[in-house]
Amino acid sequence: MENRIRSYRIQKNITQEELANGIVSTSYLSKIENGSVEPSQEVLNLLYERLGVDLQEINPKNISIQIKKCYRNILLGNETLATDELSRLKQKGSLYEKKFEIKIQLLESRILINQQDLDGALRLLSKYDRNQESFSIAAKRFYHINKGLIDYYSGNFVDSNAHFLMAEKLIDELSDNLEIGEIYYFIALTYSQLQKASHSIESTKKALKVYQSTYLQKKCVYCHILLGINYRKIREWDQAEESYQWARTICENFNYHEILDSVEQNLGFLYEKKQDHMKALQCYMNSLRYKQKNQDHSGMILTYMSIVRLYYEKENSREAAYWMEKASSIFAEELNLSKDIFIQYKVYKSLLSSDSDDELEEYLSKEVIPYYTENKSYENIVTYSTILSKLYEKKSRYKPAGVYWKKAIEAYQKLVNV
C-alpha cells in the first residue's frame, strides 16, 4: 500500500511537505513513497487520513468483492447496477494494483460492448492484444469473451467462435457458473451463425443445463429459442416446436412479455416452413401485438415482412400489398435494420410493384445470392434462388432459371445435412 501513497498525493495535488507535516519528516516520506522503508501502521493510518483515503476502499479483498459484484450484475443483465459499480471502482481505479486496473478495464469494455460502443471497447482491449503476461486465468477468459463479442457484433463469426472456444479452454474450478453458461451460449450463437446447427445445439444444451441449475429462467428462454432455431434448420420440426413452446410457457409463467414477441416470431416462421400458414399467421399477429405495445419499429418491420412473405407465397397479392404498405409507412423511420430485413423489404417491395423485373434480377444475382452464399446461409440461398428462378421462368429464360433451381436444390441439400 505504501508505494501507492505517492499516487494518492499527486491525485490530491498535495506536496510532500504538506503531507508529511506533523507526521514524519519530508525525507522519510520520500523513502516511504520509494518503497525503501516500511512505516508503522500508525504512520500509514495518519498519512491516509490526511489524504482522505478510506483504507477499506483500497483493501484488495474489498476491491475483489466489488469487481465480482460488478461482473455478476453484467452476467445477470443488471446494466444499471453494473454501471454504478464500475463508476465507484473507476473513481480510484488508477490507484489500484495493476491486476485490478486490468479487471476494471475489462469490465468497462464489456459494458461498452453491451451499449454497442464497439470502437470504445476495442480501444480499451487493443493495448492487451499482444501483452497478456500479467493476466490471471480469469482475466484472460474475460478478455477472450469480450473480443469474441466484438467480433460477433461485427459479423466476424469465425474469429468470434475462436475467442469463445479459447474462453471455454480457460474455464477452471474458480469460474462462476453464470460465466460458464454465458460462454457455452456464446459458442452456440456463433455456431448457429456459421450454420453448424448440430454443434450449436450441443453447446446450447450445456448452457441450458447451467441456467436451469441456477434457476435463471430468462436465460433458459433464450436457450430454448436458440434450440428451436437450430432444430428448425435441420428440419427437426417437432423438437423445434417443443423448444419454442417451452420458451413460450416460461415467458407466460414469469411475465417475460418483452421476449414473447421473439418467441411468437420464431414459432410463426417454423409453422411457415411447415406450410401451416394459418398457425404461422396467428403467431405473427401475436408477435406484432407485443412489438406494437413496445413501439419496436424494427421488430414491427420484421413481422410485417413475414406476413407479406406469407401472403405472397399464398398468391394473395392484395393482402401482401396491404402489409407491405404498413412496412413502408415506418421503414424510413427505422434506420437500425439488419441486412436480412433490408433485403427482404427491397425484394418483396419490388415483387409487388408493377416495375420491370430487370433491376430485381440483377440485385438478386449480383448482391443477394452472393452475399448469402459467402455467409453459407442456406435457407436464404434457397429462398432467393427460387424467387430468381421463377422470375426467369416467367420470361421463358429457362437456362438461367435452371441454374438457379439447381442452386436452390444444392443449398437445400446442404441445409438438411447441416
From TrEMBL:
It comes from the Bacteria. InterPro entries: Cro/C1-type_HTH (IPR001387), HTH-type_regulator_Rgg (IPR053163), Lambda_DNA-bd_dom_sf (IPR010982), TPR-like_helical_dom_sf (IPR011990), TPR_rpt (IPR019734). Transmembrane segments: none annotated. PROSITE patterns: HTH_CROC1 (PS50943). Pfam families: HTH_3. Residues 5-58 form the HTH cro/C1-type domain. Gene3D superfamilies: lambda repressor-like DNA-binding domains, Tetratricopeptide repeat domain. SMART domains: HTH_XRE, TPR. SUPFAM superfamilies: lambda repressor-like DNA-binding domains, TPR-like. This is Tetratricopeptide repeat protein. It comes from Bacillus carboniphilus.
